[in-house]
């Protein structure tokens, strides 16, 4: 999609959806609005962009790209781990099995980078209770994926790193469930990495959430999206790594870096305003990510996202 079409969409993005109360009990997360209808949950993925745990702006078509991508991955992995998806009545909406979520996020990492690299340099990487060899280099691959879980903090609070021992001690998951969760997360991650490679990408790290219905375990929320994951360009990895250069990324770390570089913003102080051209170029990042990851071009229909969602939900009997 060209830049002018993306500019035109800036005024029609989905910030906070306004749906009639009959759509169900409402909860607003940073990016998704959920509506509970008995044992199912309508997840509306908005165009809101969050960075450093703050919602900063909206990005044209971001919600659609994320919802489509996550469903692409759920389709590809459902033979490995059951997921929460029941129906996709609109490009921005997933109807899911309402699960009892675990209050931990499972971060799986294939490489030493990002916040973990920053922690490693400071010596504060011990919170996960994992052994780390000395002398690792930035962006170095781990021999096998590692888990660096964090608590799922209530709204407005920051997630904290947590060790497996602490998860079990606090009863955030039983030993049996934790074993099932890590096994499922490992299998999903390896499958994600395998597919990413065929698309010229490295799935560097990602975050999963799991929930239960009765004793059945499901992967919930979103998987392998640019919001929950970091991807690098595979063909440049070795050369950049050996020269000690930053990797070429495919994710919102780009906007995070713009915030740090241009606004000195790292989550504290007044929220910076995001200029329109930065919103448009961020939209392009998301669209490129979709096409690079899936290998399929994305046909988008400009227009009022909110109105379309309402129409589709009515047509499918969710309203
Ligand atoms: N199938 C599900 N059952 C129960 N809760 C879910 C399910 N899928 C997603 N959720 C929850 O819905 C919310 C989605 O909104 P999101 O914007 O991602 O929130 P957050 O700000 O916590 O990241 C999250 O709290 C997530 O844990
Ligand atoms: Mg989330």
UniProtKB/TrEMBL annotation:
Pfam families, A to Z: SAICAR_synt
Gene: purC
Pathway recorded for this protein: Purine metabolism; IMP biosynthesis via de novo pathway; 5-amino-1-(5-phospho-D-ribosyl)imidazole-4-carboxamide from 5-amino-1-(5-phospho-D-ribosyl)imidazole-4-carboxylate: step 1/2
Protein name: Phosphoribosylaminoimidazole-succinocarboxamide synthase
Main enzyme class: ligase
GO molecular-function terms, A-Z: ATP binding; phosphoribosylaminoimidazolesuccinocarboxamide synthase activity
PROSITE patterns: SAICAR_SYNTHETASE_2 (PS01058)
UniProt similarity note: Belongs to the SAICAR synthetase family.
Entries under InterPro entries matching the protein: SAICAR_synt/ADE2_N, SAICAR_synthetase_CS
Catalytic reaction equation(s): 5-amino-1-(5-phospho-D-ribosyl)imidazole-4-carboxylate + L-aspartate + ATP = (2S)-2-[5-amino-1-(5-phospho-beta-D-ribosyl)imidazole-4-carboxamido]succinate + ADP + phosphate + 2 H(+)
UniProt-listed Gene3D superfamilies: ATP-grasp fold, B domain, Phosphorylase Kinase, domain 1
EC code(s) of this entry: 6.3.2.6
Gene source species: Melittangium boletus DSM 14713
Superkingdom of source: Bacteria
Entry's Gene Ontology cellular component terms: cytoplasm
Alphabetical keyword list: ATP-binding, Ligase, Nucleotide-binding, Purine biosynthesis
SUPFAM superfamilies: SAICAR synthase-like (SSF56104)
Alphabetical GO biological process terms: 'de novo' IMP biosynthetic process
Residue span, SAICAR synthetase/ADE2 N-terminal domain: 26-261
Presence of keyword Ligase: yes
């Amino acid at each position: 999609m060209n830049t002018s079409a993306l500019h035109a969409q800036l005024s029609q993005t989905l910030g906070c959806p306004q749906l009639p109360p009959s759509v169900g009990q409402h909860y607003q997360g940073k990016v998704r609005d959920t509506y509970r209808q008995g044992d199912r949950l309508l997840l509306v993925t908005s165009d809101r962009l969050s960075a450093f745990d703050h919602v900063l702006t909206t990005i044209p078509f971001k919600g659609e790209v994320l919802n489509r991508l996550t469903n692409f991955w759920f389709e590809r992995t459902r033979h490995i781990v059951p997921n929460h998806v029941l129906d996709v009545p609109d490009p921005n909406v997933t109807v899911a099995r309402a699960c009892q979520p675990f209050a931990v996020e499972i971060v799986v990492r294939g490489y030493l980078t990002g916040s973990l690299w920053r922690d490693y340099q400071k010596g504060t990487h011990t919170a996960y209770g994992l052994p780390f060899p000395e002398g690792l280099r930035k962006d170095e691959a781990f021999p096998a994926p590692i888990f660096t879980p964090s608590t799922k903090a209530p709204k407005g609070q920051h997630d904290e790193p947590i060790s497996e021992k602490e998860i079990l001690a606090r009863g955030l998951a039983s030993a049996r469930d934790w074993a099932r969760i890590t096994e499922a997360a490992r299998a999903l991650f390896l499958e994600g990495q395998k597919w990413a490679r065929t698309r010229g990408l490295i799935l560097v790290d990602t975050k999963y959430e799991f929930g239960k219905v009765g004793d059945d375990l499901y992967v919930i929320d979103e998987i392998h999206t640019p919001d929950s994951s970091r991807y690098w360009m595979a063909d440049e990895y070795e050369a950049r790594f050996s020269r000690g250069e930053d990797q070429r990324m495919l994710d919102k770390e780009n906007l995070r870096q713009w915030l740090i570089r241009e606004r000195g913003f790292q989550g504290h102080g007044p929220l910076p305003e995001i200029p329109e051209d930065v919103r448009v170029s961020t939209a392009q990042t998301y669209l490129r990510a979709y096409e690079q990851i899936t290998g399929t071009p994305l046909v988008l229909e400009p227009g009022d996202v909110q109105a379309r969602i309402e129409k589709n939900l009515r047509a499918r009997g969710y309203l």
